[in-house]
Inverse folding.
């Protein structure tokens, strides 16, 4: 029996070796990019070297589109006149593997030239190629960046007409404030979204599997924040809102202004109200809600728990002995409407 297992194991290893040799030979013959990028404790072991640099005039440009597959994208602003792009790689690239930059009408497109690549990436989701974007500060039009498997890192403040950042499997990190005249959109299928301040007419954040962390102040006329699986953490929100977490907690440190809905299917909700434009509706299917309301706010409260209780340091009027239904009106008016409903979880409403 042991001999049979040894034979099966030997055959399996031989098949694996043949497959690896085939891939290697095919890579060399077709100039396919075959690379190994190993990262231990956050330290990259491969050396990145500049493979290509190019620049283009922004005259007549109203839109910049950047589209890559597994490359990490980094953007900084500069004082120069032209838009510059630098590509780094852990392995020498042939000309047909390097990025291309073209201008068609009012749109500049930067993209990967050859998608026939084979990547072996261990312990490093960002891959082994990096695209550096050097965007002139004078550019105030639209920016669209998309990468399938790689991070997008914005390291400078931006002032644009529109911004659209999208990753399939990777993170979006914006370490400085972003201002847009119209729309700002951030989407990650599998990865976190982190932002440090935003001003826009309309903004949206969507993470299918990942956290959304919004530092600074989020200021827009309309704001949509949604996660399928992950927490939502907002520092300061100053806009109308629609905030939804299917499986995750929601925490808003300071809700300064606006009206809207906050909804969690499975996870606690914690909101600190500093101001309300007209109304706020909180719904939680499985989890508790804690609402802290500034004393300066005059509000009309209605709360309901299917399974749980409502507690408050206000003088609430309870409808039954279970204390799972309550109403109350506080302040001198005009009154803002606060409605909180939970299916399975307690409700806490208190002064800050």
């Amino acid at each position: 029996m042991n001999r049979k297992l040894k034979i099966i194991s030997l055959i399996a290893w031989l098949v694996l070796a043949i497959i690896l040799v085939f891939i290697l030979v095919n890579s060399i013959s077709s100039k396919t990019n075959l690379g190994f990028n190993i990262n231990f404790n956050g330290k990259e072991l491969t050396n990145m070297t500049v493979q290509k640099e190019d620049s283009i005039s922004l005259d007549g440009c109203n839109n910049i589109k950047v589209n890559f597959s597994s490359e990490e994208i980094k953007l900084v602003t500069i004082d120069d006149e032209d838009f510059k792009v630098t590509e780094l790689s852990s392995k020498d690239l042939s000309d047909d593997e390097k990025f291309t930059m073209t201008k068609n009408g009012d749109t500049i497109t930067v993209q990967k030239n050859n998608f026939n690549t084979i990547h072996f990436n261990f312990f490093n989701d960002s891959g082994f190629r990096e695209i550096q974007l050097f965007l002139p500060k004078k550019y105030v039009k639209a920016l669209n960046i998309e990468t399938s498997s790689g991070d997008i890192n914005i390291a400078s403040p931006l002032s644009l007409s529109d911004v659209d950042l999208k990753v399939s499997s990777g993170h979006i990190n914006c370490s400085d404030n972003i201002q847009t005249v119209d729309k700002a959109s951030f989407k990650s299928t599998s990865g976190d979204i982190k932002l440090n301040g935003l001003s826009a007419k309309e903004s949206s954040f969507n993470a299918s599997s990942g956290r959304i962390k919004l530092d600074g102040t989020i200021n827009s006329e309309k704001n949509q924040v949604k996660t399928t699986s992950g927490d939502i953490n907002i520092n300061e929100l100053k806009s109308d809102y629609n905030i939804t977490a299917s499986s995750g907690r929601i925490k808003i440190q300071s809700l300064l202004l606006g009206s809207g809905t906050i909804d969690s299917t499975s996870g606690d909700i914690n909101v600190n109200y500093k101001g309300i434009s007209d109304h706020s509706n909180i719904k939680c299917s499985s989890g508790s809600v804690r609402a802290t309301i500034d004393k300066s706010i005059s509000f009309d409260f209605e709360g309901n728990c299917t399974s749980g209780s409502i507690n408050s340091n206000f003088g609430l009027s309870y409808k039954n002995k279970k204390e799972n239904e309550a109403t109350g009106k506080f302040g001198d008016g005009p009154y803002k409407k606060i409605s909180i409903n939970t299916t399975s979880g307690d409700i806490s409403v208190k002064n800050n």
Residues 25-45, 115-127 have pLDDT under 50 and may be disordered. The longest helix spans residues 2-30. The two ends are 72 Å apart (CA to CA). The chain is about 10% helix and 60% strand.
